[in-house]
Amino acid sequence: MSWDVIGENLGLYAEGAKLTLFLTIASLGIAFVLSLPLALGRNSHIPLLRNAIASYTLVFRGTPLLVQLFLIYYGLAQFGWVRDSVLWPWLSSPLVCVIMTFVLNTAAYTTEIFAGGLRHLPPGEIEAARAYGMSPLTRARRILLPAMLTRSLTLYGNETVMMLHATSLASTVTLLEVTGVARNITLNYYIMFEPYVTAAAIYLALTLTLVLLFQFAQARWAGYLQART
Q1: For residue 117, with 0-12 CB atoms within 10 Å meaning exposed, 13-18 middle and 19 or more buried, which class applies?
Q2: For residues 74 and 92, is the Cβ–Cβ distance under 8 A?
Q3: I need a labelling partner for 57 at 20 to 30 A (CA). Which of 2, 30, 69, 178 fits?
Q4: Residue 158: which residues within 8 A CB-CB, separation 6 or more?
Q5: What is the pLDDT, as a whole number, of residue 228?
Q6: Residue 215: closest CA among 148, 133, 153
Q7: What 8-state DSSP symbol labels residue 87?
Q8: Tens digit of each residue's pLDDT (9 = 90 or more) over 110-144
């Protein structure tokens, strides 16, 4: 066993963990903001809007994340008009392409999670808000969105954990997050077991932290939804 190699490279793992957390938080944060209006539109009475959002979520939930990443990072570079555009300095960056891909993917899942939460709201809550004279914007801000978020906490927690694990794909486009660091150590020192066990331990620690945070949030804000005996 070559655990001394791991000890010598703990600094690299720390930097990789920072990048993993950055990718996770940035992707989920941007996707969260996008998913709120998309979830409302997913349940809209306007067929064109509802079907357009449904098509978007179907495409990104129905294709592998790795394929999406390759299409955005490698595929866009094949178009001359993309390389000649003002966006090329951004689209040629692995970090930007990874975050863009992760945002589009997790926003599709989050939109469906939130839209499902909206569909499970008791009709009486919405009718009471209308009877009280709330405008559609006020109704969404005070009734729909808070109730939707509390009912979606469990599923959104699962999506958060899945997004954390999905950041390992960033290593395929040269980013040195946790998995990328493990792969580099494997290539440099010709050892396989220790680098990936260490990477797995880091992911496990981060996952347990997320699970505990969501359990706290669920007890704090969604405890009233739990069945009482």
Answers
A1: buried
A2: no
A3: 178
A4: none
A5: 52
A6: 153
A7: T
A8: 999 999 988 888 777 777 777 777 887 887 777 88
Compute the distance between CA of residue 45 and CA of residue 59 in angstroms, rounded to an integer. 22
| Position 219, amino acid | A
> Cβ distance 129 to 139 under 8 Å?
yes
Residue 11, C-beta contacts closer than 8 angstroms, at least 6 positions apart: none
Only one residue has tokens 């680098």, namely 195
Distance in angstroms (rounded) separating the CA atoms of residues 98 and 74:
11
Q: Which residue type sits at 41? A: G
What's the predicted TM-score (pTM) here?
0.90
3-state helix, strand, coil in the chain (%, to 5): 85, 0, 15
d(CA 118, CA 184): 45
Q: List, as one string, the DSSP characters of 153-192.
A: HHHHHHHHHHHHHHGGGGGGGT--SHHHHHHHHHHHH---
Question: Which residue has tokens 């946790």?
Answer: 178
pLDDT in tens, 144-195: 888 888 889 999 999 999 999 999 999 999 999 999 999 999 999 989 999 9
